[in-house]
Amino acid sequence: MTSELxxxxxxxxALRAGLPLGDGRHEEVALTANHIHxxxxxxxxxxxxxxxxxxxxxxxxxxxxxxx
Length: 68
Hints:
Blueprint (H helix, E strand, L loop, with lengths): L6 H10 L9 H19 L24
Helix pairs in contact: 1-2
């Protein structure tokens, strides 16, 4: 597991990407990046097993009168 992104690291990363942040934005960007990272980490832990990719489904081709 990686450590959380600090506001200073967020500012440096944004600057390297050509997106300089305003002075008050470093902490908010770091918090947002850390949240996104935690969500993606959770998604990576999911086991999809034999589930085919979404591109294999065709909308509107199912049984319209099926009951649940």
